[in-house]
């Protein structure tokens, strides 16, 4: 290298130098950084290689000042017990952070102040501070007040869970009913003709949680279609399951609306002197890590958490960039992971 010249140190490279190295315009480099979906794949690959080779590091603060973008997604975290966290939502959060990072975004967690039940004030505070470009909401209920609130505020958002008719369809969800129908077919194929469903963690849950209602409906509809005898618990808990198992016409299989509910079934089966997987087949829903550690290992419905998170981030960033929103939500399929319990 001639005396008096040197390769720019990492982080000192300019966007113009990247453009020259890749043989493109400065605007094309900017598009690669801010809107890669607008760039042809071969050009994207060439510019990305030049960025990596030259060690170019864009000035994020300057970019934010120019564009008004914070490159940060707000996630309204469900209230949870740190000593007994929801394993499904913990897995979803991991997938969301990874999906955001792949798009050059960060995830900012927030929730109402301790003791405050209304999340709307927490949303207003975050939006007023201009800390995020948009929001991801989960655990969406029927007539969820958060949806109308963020729509009126003009905030880009996506939801893990379906919004109602007349609301923006920025949602991503699984096919809960068809997933439970797959469970019923699995049990029928193994010869079970009398089956039960446990779907409530507490009284009224199936009515209040739309995904639980869909799972129960999917179970009953498919059992009816196949000519199976299907029963459900009138109340939740180990004792309710024991009552189902104590009669002469006890079910030979029990499907549940979550892996945690399957724990009650395991306990009830053993309390009746029966064996899970031999006398009574049991299935769960969510395929959380505990499934592999139960004895016997629990058959469960696996959610595509990475695909869900990726779609949520992609649909949110479409809105942030001012692109036309998708006309309909996205329903993703699930997988049934068969283990020894069934």
UniProtKB/TrEMBL annotation:
Q: Which GO terms describe its molecular function?
A: DNA-binding transcription factor activity; transcription cis-regulatory region binding
- What SMART domains does the annotation carry? HTH_LACI
- Note the InterPro entries from the entry: Cro/C1-type_HTH, HTH_LacI, LacI/GalR-like_sensor, Lambda_DNA-bd_dom_sf, Peripla_BP_I
Pfam families recorded: LacI, Peripla_BP_3
Q: Where is the HTH cro/C1-type domain?
A: 14-57
Provide the coiled-coil residue spans.
none
Keyword list (alphabetical) reads: DNA-binding, Transcription, Transcription regulation
Domain called HTH lacI-type: residue spans: 13-67
> Could you tell me what this protein is called?
LacI family transcriptional regulator
Q: What is the organism field in this record?
A: Streptomyces kaniharaensis
């Amino acid at each position: 290298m001639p005396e008096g010249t040197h390769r720019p140190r990492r982080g000192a490279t300019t966007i113009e130098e990247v453009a020259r190295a890749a043989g493109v315009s400065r605007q094309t480099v900017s598009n690669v950084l801010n809107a890669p979906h607008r760039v042809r794949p071969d050009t994207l690959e060439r510019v990305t290689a030049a960025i990596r080779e030259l060690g170019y590091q864009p000035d994020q603060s300057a970019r934010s000042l120019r564009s008004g973008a914070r490159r940060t997604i707000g996630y309204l975290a469900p209230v949870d017990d740190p000593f007994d966290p929801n394993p499904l939502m913990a897995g979803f959060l991991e997938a969301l952070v990874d999906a955001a990072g792949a798009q050059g975004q960060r995830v900012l967690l927030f929730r109402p102040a301790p003791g405050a039940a209304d999340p709307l004030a927490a949303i207003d505070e975050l939006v007023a501070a201009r800390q995020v470009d948009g929001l991801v909401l989960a655990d969406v209920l029927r007539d969820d007040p958060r949806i109308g609130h963020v729509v009126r505020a003009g905030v880009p958002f996506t939801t893990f869970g379906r919004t109602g008719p007349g609301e923006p369809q920025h949602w991503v969800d699984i096919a809960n009913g068809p997933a439970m129908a797959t469970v019923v077919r699995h049990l029928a194929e193994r010869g079970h003709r009398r089956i039960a469903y446990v779907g409530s963690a507490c009284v009224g849950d199936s009515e209040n949680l739309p995904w639980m209602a869909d799972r129960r409906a999917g179970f009953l509809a498919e059992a009816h279609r196949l000519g199976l005898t299907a029963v459900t618990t009138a109340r939740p808990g180990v004792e309710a399951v024991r009552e189902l198992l104590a009669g002469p016409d006890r079910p030979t299989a029990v499907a549940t609306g979550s892996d945690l509910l399957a724990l009650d079934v395991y306990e009830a089966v053993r309390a009746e002197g029966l064996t899970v997987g031999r006398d009574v087949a049991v299935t769960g829903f969510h395929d959380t890590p505990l499934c592999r550690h139960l004895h016997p290992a629990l058959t469960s419905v696996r959610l595509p958490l990475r695909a869900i998170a990726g779609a949520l981030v992609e649909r949110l960033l479409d809105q942030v960039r001012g692109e036309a929103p998708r006309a309909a939500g996205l329903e993703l399929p699930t997988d049934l992971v068969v283990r020894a319990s069934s």
